[in-house]
Amino acid sequence: MMLEPLVLRVFRQPQSIKALTLADWDLLIRQARRSNVLSSLYAVLEENDLLDGVPPKPREHLDWSWIGAERHTQVVRWEVRHITQALADLDIPVMLLKGAAYVFAQLPSARGRIFNDIDILVPETSLGPVEASLMLHGWVSMHTDAYDQRYYRTWMHELPPMQHVRRQTVIDVHHAIVPKTAPVHPDSALLLAAARPVEGASNLTVLAPHDMVLHSAVHLFNDGEFDNGLRDLVDLHRLLTHFGKSPDFWPGLTQRADQLQLVRPLFYALRYVGRLLDTPIPDAVMTAAEAGRPARATLVLMDALFARALAPDHASCSDAFTAIAKELLYVRANWLRMPPLLLARHLFHKAFISPWNK
Amino acid sequence: MEGPGICLRTGGFVTHVRSTIQSVMDGVGLLYADYPLVEEDFADFHVSLNRPANLRRWYRPQVMFHFDGKSPFKPLPVEQAFPMFEWGLNWCVASHVYRYLIIHAAVIERGGFAAVLPAPPGSGKSTLCAALVNRGWRLLSDELTLVGIDDGMILPLPRPVSLKNASIGIIKSYVPGAVFSPTVMDTTKGSVAHMKPTEDSVRRVSEKARPGWVIFPRYQADANAELVVLPRSRALMRVAENAFNFSALGTRGFETLARMIDTSLCFDFTYSRLEDAIATFASLAAEARVA
Predict the structure, then answer these.
(1) Most exposed: A8, A143, B3, B223, by fewest CB within 10 Å?
(2) Quick count: other Cβ atoms within 10 Å of Cβ B72?
(3) Which residue of A has its CA nearest to B47?
């Protein structure tokens, strides 16, 4: 049984920092920095009035990360402004996803959160005009390999990432939250219909609270990328804690998951935030979420794999099985994206043919 | 250093270092001899330098620099391990520290005032810096100038001075008693050696300095020493180009830089003979005392 990582303990129980020694702080800062949650840690400590109790040296590191994060938020707002200007003539609502959405919806999860790209979602029928507008305003598609282009456009749920020539920022344009080739199909039309407007920005929307949580869950438990596993888990925790305060949030959550075919990711999400971060979840909701419970043997395996993948990517939190766990989850993610034959073909191409084409 | 490693306190930062490579251990032992060996529970940076775990451990052996287990750079030939350690320490500070505006410049102090010498590689800044710190000036840093965003004061970060190619020989003859690490050949910058910082600069590491001058040096063969006044607006733009985190600090970065330029005399400086440069700087310091 692995020891609970210090950074997890602190997010679960911020008051526990009062008992930390300087050596503990050394490890905590390192774990948090490696997991990209150092500035989020600052935000959590500030919200709990605990910052003044932090010893000077670790406090310095927290302050550094916060200054970087504030600047980051500024940059994001600036970038989204450019994006909305580029798409203004198309007269379609632009839906922000993930980090950028948290910033514009002014959610607590936005505070201190760092992310690399801007993600937006538009109706599939608008993809052509959206891509054309972006290109006219300076964004260029990043993957020039013909196979990669086809991979994204035909099978995935997004255009190939586009990078702005001058600002070097990257935008991911989605038309769905799950790849076309996946066995589940959360209907984008349902997501767009329930979208919430952004205050002060006429053509920007964000996902409704239920959908935001479900998107975060499917991204974490189906996409197979765990470099930011802890960060994404903390996101889920903060989203659920924030939305959970509102009385009309919990009743419809599992129903919506069912409607969007996302009962399995929701099951995992509630299970692991509850266990690892003590997120307050009503018993009735946990019971209803059982609809997404996998077979017993699968669950035992998943528990072991996710325990490792969601830990900080730091030497102090790894054991002999961490690397294998992440690889298995990566394979699982690909399995969830594509039917077996297509997957085999895809992996073969990436392994043997793409390197020759480079 | 092999097992639990050692902690080096350099100015405001504590670095925990581990290495199994002899030249790194020797270099630290030689050039950091004047630094207090500290036992710290909290280190700002954790670095290690080791041979890779793969074939390159033995075949044309390499060295890797790790920052808390992750490698931000490609490996280098193992002979370059000590320079890599120095470059790596600079990277640690420049990449993480947001309490200071960090300028790619040498900075030296005399009479309480600091002279900031920003310059692109090859301008002779390090040679000039190495000479000046052995002729009456205190070394604050040869590479990273740290200007406090709160108080505008410059934080000393005295560490070995990096010298390249011809300057190694020049400084060795100019300062006969100076201690040097072994010269490493064939790096991307040519031959590289590091000079031990003066004992005075290490001892006075906690004495911050107020900015007094911003001087852009340029070595030009056979030229006479010449100081040309630089308009402040131009000086600001040129320093900004040389600042690592200027953009990342946003408004704070701009205000810190503006305040520094406002309170400094700014010059372009051309020279060829070191003695001329020493004399020019000495008269700048003398004028400041009078003023």
Answers:
(1) B3
(2) 11
(3) A30
